[in-house]
Amino acid sequence: MFRVLYILWFVSVLFFFNLCKEETKEIAPKTPVKPVETVSYPYPEDNRPTPERILLGKTLFFDPIVSGSNWISCASCHNPGLGWSDGLKTAIGHNMKVLGKNTPTILNSAYGKKMFWDGRAENLEAQALGPIASPDEMNQNIDELILELKNISGYKELFAKAYPKEDISAVTIGKAIANFERTVLSGESSFDLWKKGNPASISESAQRGYSLFNGKAQCSACHQGDQFTDDGFHNIGLKSNRKDAGRFSLVPVKVMKGSFKTPGLRDVALTGPYMHDGSYSTLEEVVEHYDRGGDDSSNLDPNMKPLKLTKEEKADLVEFMKSLSGKRIAISIPALPR
């Protein structure tokens, strides 16, 4: 099984490596995309979205040049065909090293207040550089990457158009990738249509699941708002919490020990395996975990208590979460400068 996962990951890397050599290709059904002038997502004033910045960021995102081996791109682990994740229990990094965390999707990361499972990055600009420079993940020397980019005429042109008053640097690399990542947003879901007044857009089971989500199951205690996350950090009683301090490594107060960021739930049916350690393969397993109140009682979040859900109620919760899957948004792979 482990070998199969390696092969799947390797095929994914080859897919993007070869695909990116070609001209633009569609990998999802075409859906109208809002022009940059009408973006609704938040962004920092010093990195306002422009078509030129988004194109540069997208090009860097799909280009394996950002890794030390020139084999791994951001899209290797954040694959648009896998819910912008990788479909693996935990990520695979440089030299096929198996890492300790499940790859979080970048869907709707524009709305996130802190990045990574432990919240160590304050914004997407900082997040974008983290995996690139990590010896375990992409193992790229940032200074060497800057020199590589400066020696490619196509990249010099892209950077000049995107950031005409700034040089090619770690700052502009991070800014560009962040600009693209902010455009990766969920499409309208059947749940959204139901909320707008279309009663037939989701099943009765999903409707019951939504009531449970906000009631007996207490999911909305942490999964709140339009993105279904409080952007907070909680210890939900996973067995691996005894080995991983989580947020505690950055905020050394007891309540943070074993706590990890609450993920959003839009398109959650596409982004398994689940939890920061990838310990559950299905949404059904996730619901079972919460129903029993977690597995590790040390420093457990006070909201984690046995729920005593019936078999039907568990199924209804899963149906509701599936209704949060949005329409696939078209994404094109740009030709890579060389």
TrEMBL record:
It is found in: Periplasm. It holds the Pfam family Cytochrom_C. InterPro entries: Cyt_c-like_dom, Cyt_c-like_dom_sf, Cytochrome_c_Peroxidase/MauG, Di-haem_cyt_c_peroxidsae, MauG/Cytc_peroxidase. Pathway: One-carbon metabolism; methylamine degradation. GO terms for molecular function: cytochrome-c peroxidase activity; electron transfer activity; heme binding; metal ion binding. GO terms for cellular component: periplasmic space. Binds 2 heme groups per subunit. Heme c 2 binds at residues 219, 222-223. Residues 52-179, 204-325 form the Cytochrome c domain. Keywords: Electron transport, Heme, Iron, Metal-binding, Oxidoreductase, Periplasm, Signal, Transport. Heme c 1 binds at residues 74, 77-78, 94. The keyword Electron transport applies. Its cofactor is heme. SUPFAM superfamilies: Cytochrome c. The keyword Zinc-finger does not apply. Binds 2 heme groups. Involved in methylamine metabolism. Essential for the maturation of the beta subunit of MADH, presumably via a step in the biosynthesis of tryptophan tryptophylquinone (TTQ), the cofactor of MADH. This is Methylamine utilization protein MauG. It comes from Leptospira kmetyi.
